[in-house]
Give the backbone structure.
Amino acid sequence: QVQLVESGGGLVQPGGSLRLSCAASGFTFSSYHMSWYRQAPGKERELVATITSRGGGTNYADSVKGRFTISRDNAKNTVYLHMNSLKPEDTAVYYCNAERYESVYWGQGTQVTVSS
């Protein structure tokens, strides 16, 4: 059974930091590209960051470049999103995504709220 379980969300003040984690099981994690997406109320889901299967390549949305870092630990079947200098506009539900050719899996999401 495939599972992607996100954790680490919460309420943080502007300028603060959070680290999201996504624990994967039920598939060969190291063969999949992993991504974080987010969806704010009333908006479409958008890609935040992607990391290749072996971790050699990353890509970021312009809105988070220089503030967010995606990483993975294939030994722990876990992908992370380190978020620094958080802004109110980063408020959203953050989703973990695994993709390899036609196989796509999603987590249930974790809420991140940036507010004073």
